[in-house]
Amino acid sequence: MSEITRDVIVIGAGAAGLTAANDLKKAGLSVVVLEARDRVGGRLWTDVIDGAMLEIGGQWISPDQEALKETVEELGLETFSRYREGDSVYVNADGQLTRFTGDIFPTGPETEAEIERLIEILDALVAEIDPDKPWEHPDAEALDRISFEAWIAEQTDDQEARDNIALFIAGAMLTKPAYAFSALQALLMAASAGSFTHLVDADYILDERVVGGLQQVPLLLAERLGDDVILDQPVNEVHTTDDGVAVVTDNGLTVRGRYVILAHAPILYPWIEFDPPLPRLKQQLHQHISMGFVIKVHAVYDRPFWREQGLSGTAFSPYELSHEAYDNTNHGDERGTLVGFVSDRNADDLFRVSPEERKARILESLSHYYGEEAKSPIVYFESDWGAEQWTRGAYAASFDLGGLHRYGADLRTPVGRIHFACSDMAGAGYQHVDGAIRMGRLVASQIIEEARA
């Protein structure tokens, strides 16, 4: 058994925890970051698989993500734009492929008009939502008692319009079926990005990448903390008294301090024994949030062959196994990389079959967008965050029906000396690295203020 003492103990070496730790250190407080994994980064992870550099976790930066952009610039990292020259493709319910440009899918004039009308309705509602306090909207309770799927059905009889509107939130963001979360949760997702229109615009929401991978953000932040980041230390006990906190890890390390920050996905809180226990409201709250489920598929080819066809690589369909896919070719790489996503119920089904059949089904789906050549990558890899012990899903946690209005205001509330920070509880930048950085900054400022009082 070993023991150390710090002013603040941070549990989790992702973007939120490392941002908080750096801000606290700058303010003159001593810190330690305890990480369960053998690496830093949390849901950011860049690795070399069969000779190809792949961003296994989060990777994109959008123009509104000011906190992330400031951090990237301050760390001296270089960015590059996602490839988007040429046509996008859309596959309808009949399997028909159509090339198009712009944001609205080519669904036929009446359905296109209906999609645009629904986006206008959603944008107007989103403009009334404070992403930090969505439960304060006058109609918050009613919006939280109806599923997003049912809410869309109330707005239109056009099934293809319904399917496409649901895709932007359910498949692409929350990675849950649209019947499993509320209209209020959907509005929060859109408000966190500035508008529903932003979610529709892939050129906006998936704008830039970092040369060498986005995991460099937490890696460089951790570098500044040196030996104060300790890996392979899953925390299993948090003890609090009026005088301070004591944190115990699986590997026998005890850290005593004044404050503790839980900077990891909230679904992992039940893995920690709290003494005294968390308040009953917190315990109830944590039973009403869950992670989404998505497989991020990486397919690397000897060249970006789709560009030869005048395609940007951007592809969408609520009717395909891979509901969206993009050109994900690395900066300066002669090879071509596609990244596709399989979410919620489709992901469930794929883990009921063998890995070989799963790969075949996914590549078949990609071939519906790009042609037969998509079936023969030289490198193939599936990011399965549902199998990650210290994440257990992707991209982030969201509330069940009624949960956001009922418990949202309590999600970030400190419990004495215990503070909470992660992208899952952000307003702006919710479930993105930008939100993690914002939450890290916020919690650090709260602790600094308390420590100086």
Structural account:
The chain folds into three domains: 143 residues, FAD/NAD(P)-binding domain; 130 residues, Polyamine Oxidase, Chain A, domain 2 (Alpha-Beta Complex), CATH 3.90.660; 97 residues, Guanine Nucleotide Dissociation Inhibitor, domain 1. It has 16 helices and 24 strands. It starts with a strand and ends with a helix. Strand 19 and strand 20 form a beta hairpin. Helices cover 35% and strands 23% of the residues. With 453 residues, the protein is α/β, with parallel strands linked by helices. The protein has a seven-stranded mixed sheet with strand order 9-8-19-20-21-18-22. A five-stranded mixed sheet has the order 1-14-13-12-16, with no helix packed on it. A five-stranded parallel sheet has the order 11-3-2-15-24, with helices on one face. It is globular.
